[in-house]
User: Which sequence fits this backbone?
Protein backbone atom coordinates (compact mmCIF):
# COMPACT_ATOMS: atom_id res chain seq x y z
CA UNK A 1 0.00 0.00 0.00
CA UNK A 2 1.14 3.52 -0.71
CA UNK A 3 2.00 5.78 2.17
CA UNK A 4 4.16 5.63 5.26
CA UNK A 5 4.22 2.61 7.53
CA UNK A 6 5.86 1.82 10.84
CA UNK A 7 6.68 -1.49 12.43
CA UNK A 8 6.17 -2.83 14.95
CA UNK A 9 3.10 -0.95 16.12
CA UNK A 10 3.65 -2.05 19.71
CA UNK A 11 6.83 -3.18 21.42
CA UNK A 12 7.72 -4.18 24.96
CA UNK A 13 11.39 -4.51 25.81
CA UNK A 14 13.68 -4.48 28.80
CA UNK A 15 16.21 -1.95 29.97
CA UNK A 16 19.54 -2.38 28.23
CA UNK A 17 18.26 -4.17 25.16
CA UNK A 18 18.71 -2.89 21.64
CA UNK A 19 15.51 -2.06 19.78
CA UNK A 20 15.00 -1.02 16.17
CA UNK A 21 11.88 0.73 14.96
CA UNK A 22 11.24 0.59 11.25
CA UNK A 23 9.81 3.25 8.95
CA UNK A 24 9.02 2.80 5.28
CA UNK A 25 7.52 5.27 2.80
CA UNK A 26 6.45 4.68 -0.79
CA UNK A 27 6.36 8.29 -2.01
CA UNK A 28 10.12 8.67 -2.61
CA UNK A 29 10.09 11.68 -0.33
CA UNK A 30 13.53 13.14 0.25
CA UNK A 31 13.03 14.11 3.88
CA UNK A 32 12.25 11.75 6.72
CA UNK A 33 11.89 12.41 10.44
CA UNK A 34 11.61 10.63 13.75
CA UNK A 35 9.61 12.15 16.60
CA UNK A 36 8.67 11.01 20.06
CA UNK A 37 5.43 12.03 21.73
CA UNK A 38 5.32 12.36 25.49
CA UNK A 39 2.73 13.83 27.81
CA UNK A 40 3.57 17.44 28.55
CA UNK A 41 6.09 17.68 25.72
CA UNK A 42 4.13 17.21 22.54
CA UNK A 43 6.13 15.97 19.59
CA UNK A 44 9.90 16.31 19.77
CA UNK A 45 12.26 15.69 16.88
CA UNK A 46 14.85 12.99 17.44
CA UNK A 47 16.61 12.79 14.08
CA UNK A 48 15.91 13.73 10.51
CA UNK A 49 17.32 12.91 7.11
CA UNK A 50 17.42 15.10 4.01
CA UNK A 51 18.33 12.23 1.64
CA UNK A 52 19.91 8.81 1.60
CA UNK A 53 23.09 8.77 3.67
CA UNK A 54 22.41 12.26 5.07
CA UNK A 55 21.16 12.45 8.65
CA UNK A 56 21.18 15.10 11.35
CA UNK A 57 20.24 15.47 15.00
CA UNK A 58 17.04 17.02 16.23
CA UNK A 59 16.08 18.19 19.71
CA UNK A 60 16.47 14.91 21.61
CA UNK A 61 18.96 12.61 19.83
CA UNK A 62 20.78 11.10 22.84
CA UNK A 63 20.45 7.33 23.06
CA UNK A 64 19.25 6.95 19.47
CA UNK A 65 20.95 6.01 16.22
CA UNK A 66 19.56 6.33 12.69
CA UNK A 67 20.64 5.27 9.24
CA UNK A 68 19.28 5.83 5.76
CA UNK A 69 20.86 3.60 3.17
CA UNK A 70 17.75 3.71 0.97
CA UNK A 71 15.43 6.65 0.33
CA UNK A 72 12.35 4.73 1.42
CA UNK A 73 13.60 3.40 4.76
CA UNK A 74 14.60 5.24 7.91
CA UNK A 75 15.14 2.89 10.88
CA UNK A 76 15.57 4.23 14.41
CA UNK A 77 17.67 2.20 16.85
CA UNK A 78 17.75 2.49 20.61
CA UNK A 79 21.19 1.06 21.34
CA UNK A 80 20.54 0.36 25.02
CA UNK A 81 16.94 1.07 25.92
CA UNK A 82 16.14 3.02 29.09
CA UNK A 83 12.82 3.53 30.87
CA UNK A 84 12.86 7.20 29.86
CA UNK A 85 12.60 6.06 26.24
CA UNK A 86 9.12 4.68 26.88
CA UNK A 87 7.10 6.75 24.44
CA UNK A 88 5.12 6.80 21.23
CA UNK A 89 7.39 7.16 18.22
CA UNK A 90 6.26 8.72 14.96
CA UNK A 91 8.02 8.64 11.65
CA UNK A 92 7.22 11.31 9.07
CA UNK A 93 8.25 12.23 5.55
CA UNK A 94 8.05 15.26 3.29
CA UNK A 95 8.86 15.77 -0.38
CA UNK A 96 11.36 18.58 -0.08
CA UNK A 97 12.79 21.06 2.40
CA UNK A 98 10.99 20.19 5.60
CA UNK A 99 10.32 23.60 7.06
CA UNK A 100 7.61 24.74 4.64
CA UNK A 101 6.39 21.40 3.47
CA UNK A 102 3.66 19.37 5.02
CA UNK A 103 4.98 16.35 6.83
CA UNK A 104 3.12 13.08 6.46
CA UNK A 105 3.12 10.93 9.57
CA UNK A 106 3.05 7.21 10.07
CA UNK A 107 0.64 5.58 12.55
CA UNK A 108 3.21 5.42 15.35
CA UNK A 109 4.99 2.77 17.41
CA UNK A 110 4.14 2.51 21.09
CA UNK A 111 7.27 1.42 22.97
CA UNK A 112 7.34 0.30 26.59
CA UNK A 113 10.72 -0.19 28.27
CA UNK A 114 10.52 -2.20 31.49
CA UNK B 1 12.59 25.00 26.77
CA UNK B 2 9.25 24.84 24.98
CA UNK B 3 9.30 27.28 22.06
CA UNK B 4 5.71 26.53 21.08
CA UNK B 5 3.10 26.40 23.80
CA UNK B 6 -0.50 25.32 23.93
CA UNK B 7 -1.66 26.28 27.38
CA UNK B 8 -5.05 24.59 27.25
CA UNK B 9 -4.68 20.81 27.48
CA UNK B 10 -8.35 20.29 26.75
CA UNK B 11 -11.43 22.03 25.39
CA UNK B 12 -15.10 21.01 25.23
CA UNK B 13 -17.55 22.61 22.81
CA UNK B 14 -21.15 21.98 21.83
CA UNK B 15 -21.80 20.76 18.32
CA UNK B 16 -22.48 23.68 15.97
CA UNK B 17 -20.61 26.23 18.09
CA UNK B 18 -17.19 27.70 17.46
CA UNK B 19 -14.04 26.00 18.72
CA UNK B 20 -11.02 28.24 19.32
CA UNK B 21 -7.66 26.64 19.95
CA UNK B 22 -4.73 28.81 20.93
CA UNK B 23 -0.99 28.60 20.49
CA UNK B 24 1.85 30.87 21.59
CA UNK B 25 5.46 30.88 20.47
CA UNK B 26 8.61 32.50 21.76
CA UNK B 27 10.99 32.44 18.80
CA UNK B 28 10.61 35.56 16.64
CA UNK B 29 12.42 33.76 13.80
CA UNK B 30 9.48 31.44 13.23
CA UNK B 31 7.82 32.29 9.94
CA UNK B 32 5.67 29.29 9.09
CA UNK B 33 2.99 27.75 11.24
CA UNK B 34 0.85 24.66 10.91
CA UNK B 35 -1.93 22.87 12.70
CA UNK B 36 -2.11 19.09 12.82
CA UNK B 37 -4.98 16.94 13.96
CA UNK B 38 -4.48 13.60 15.66
CA UNK B 39 -6.97 10.83 16.35
CA UNK B 40 -6.14 8.10 18.90
CA UNK B 41 -3.83 5.35 17.60
CA UNK B 42 -3.12 7.32 14.42
CA UNK B 43 -0.38 9.68 13.31
CA UNK B 44 -0.98 13.44 13.09
CA UNK B 45 -2.47 14.69 9.85
CA UNK B 46 -1.96 18.14 8.37
CA UNK B 47 -4.91 20.49 8.77
CA UNK B 48 -3.99 24.05 7.80
CA UNK B 49 -0.96 26.31 7.63
CA UNK B 50 -0.09 30.00 7.52
CA UNK B 51 2.96 31.95 6.48
CA UNK B 52 4.12 34.95 8.49
CA UNK B 53 3.35 37.25 5.56
CA UNK B 54 -0.36 36.62 6.19
CA UNK B 55 -2.54 37.14 9.22
CA UNK B 56 -5.35 34.81 8.23
CA UNK B 57 -5.82 31.64 6.22
CA UNK B 58 -9.13 29.94 5.68
CA UNK B 59 -10.00 26.44 4.49
CA UNK B 60 -13.64 25.52 4.75
CA UNK B 61 -14.65 25.36 8.40
CA UNK B 62 -11.08 25.96 9.55
CA UNK B 63 -9.43 29.37 9.88
CA UNK B 64 -6.03 30.12 11.33
CA UNK B 65 -5.22 33.60 12.61
CA UNK B 66 -1.69 34.85 13.20
CA UNK B 67 -0.78 37.79 15.43
CA UNK B 68 2.95 38.26 14.96
CA UNK B 69 3.31 41.09 17.44
CA UNK B 70 1.77 38.94 20.16
CA UNK B 71 3.49 35.76 18.91
CA UNK B 72 0.12 34.08 18.97
CA UNK B 73 -1.91 32.00 16.59
CA UNK B 74 -5.33 30.50 16.88
CA UNK B 75 -7.38 27.91 15.06
CA UNK B 76 -11.11 28.52 14.66
CA UNK B 77 -13.45 25.69 13.73
CA UNK B 78 -16.94 26.78 12.72
CA UNK B 79 -19.29 25.00 13.05
CA UNK B 80 -17.76 22.34 15.26
CA UNK B 81 -18.73 18.75 14.52
CA UNK B 82 -18.37 15.58 16.63
CA UNK B 83 -15.84 14.26 14.09
CA UNK B 84 -13.58 17.19 14.98
CA UNK B 85 -12.95 15.60 18.39
CA UNK B 86 -9.21 14.97 18.36
CA UNK B 87 -5.92 16.32 19.68
CA UNK B 88 -4.71 19.41 17.83
CA UNK B 89 -1.04 20.30 17.64
CA UNK B 90 0.35 23.59 16.44
CA UNK B 91 3.84 23.64 14.98
CA UNK B 92 6.28 26.33 13.88
CA UNK B 93 9.41 26.56 11.79
CA UNK B 94 11.84 29.11 10.46
CA UNK B 95 13.50 29.23 7.04
CA UNK B 96 16.87 29.34 8.79
CA UNK B 97 16.28 26.01 10.48
CA UNK B 98 15.53 22.46 9.46
CA UNK B 99 12.82 21.38 11.82
CA UNK B 100 9.37 21.99 13.16
CA UNK B 101 8.70 22.69 16.80
CA UNK B 102 5.46 21.30 18.11
CA UNK B 103 3.24 22.40 20.96
CA UNK B 104 1.98 19.99 23.60
CA UNK B 105 -1.44 19.63 22.03
CA UNK B 106 -5.04 20.49 22.92
CA UNK B 107 -7.63 17.74 23.18
CA UNK B 108 -10.89 18.97 21.66
CA UNK B 109 -14.18 17.28 22.49
CA UNK B 110 -17.23 18.28 20.49
CA UNK B 111 -20.38 17.30 22.36
CA UNK B 112 -23.35 16.25 20.18
Assistant:
Amino acid sequence: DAGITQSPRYKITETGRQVTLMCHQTWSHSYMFWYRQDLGHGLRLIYYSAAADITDKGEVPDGYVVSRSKTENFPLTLESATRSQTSVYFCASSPSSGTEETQYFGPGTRLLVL
Amino acid sequence: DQQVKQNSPSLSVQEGRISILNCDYTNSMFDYFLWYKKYPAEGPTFLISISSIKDKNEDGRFTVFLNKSAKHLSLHIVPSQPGDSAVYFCAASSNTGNQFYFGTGTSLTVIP
